[in-house]
Amino acid sequence: MNSELIVFLVLSLVAVAAGLGMVFSRNAVYSALFLVLNFITVAVFYLLLGAPFIAMSQITVYAGAIMVLFLFVIMLLGAENLPPTKSLPWQKPLAYILAGILVVESLYLVFLQAQPDMVVTAPGASVNSMESLREMAMTMFNQFLLPFEVTSVLLLVAMVGAIVLTKREKAGQK
Amino acid sequence: MVPVDYYIILSAILFTIGAMGVLIRRNPLIIFMSIELMLNAGNLAFVAFSNMHKSFSGQIFVFFVIAVAAAEVAVGLALIVEIFKTKKNINIDEMNSLKG
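Predict the joint structure of the above. Result:
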């Protein structure tokens, strides 16, 4: 049992528990905070996998920006505790059965094509140097330049869309 | 040393939890968070494969997924706020008409 495996197992327990807590907690604020915990554990997995830039993006964009937006909307709407409504009686059992089928199926696929000889070793200090970041930037701005620019247009469209959707037109005013 | 398979299994489990959240919860905000969890599980698999193949393409794809998720959340939350203002209710079962 090496130390990396122990870190992985403990963190994956935390990640799965935070995911389940997100789905099952009654209060939407608690759900959001569980999801932040999950994002941070996944960021640590990214560090273990030798992707420090993605880990930092994960923390700043996901755990920082997106979840703050979620918390704002939850508190703005007062949607922490929605009143329970009558739901379809067969909905929950069916959902559990379908989720069970999905997880069994995906695990079966993983075991079918398992490659136990492929291991991930935690990166040394070299991956955190500027050299790795420079290599990644070279890939992004050479091979993936067009998708990068398309993403910037997408973000602009989303920004304009969000403003147009939430802007309330005053009566008698164009 | 952790086998890559473990990361893929964890990613599958997280994805299933997200899918289950979409199926059993009726609060659209929680459904949105479950979708984020599923995207995150996909990202974890991408980074694991990127490490396995010693290529940066997977990490760059994750970067794009994060950008798309941010755009999706901005528009989706704007829609939820607007629906709440119109109907005073955000139960997903009652959103069954296109005209407000």
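Chain A touches chain B through 81 residues (CB under 8 Å).
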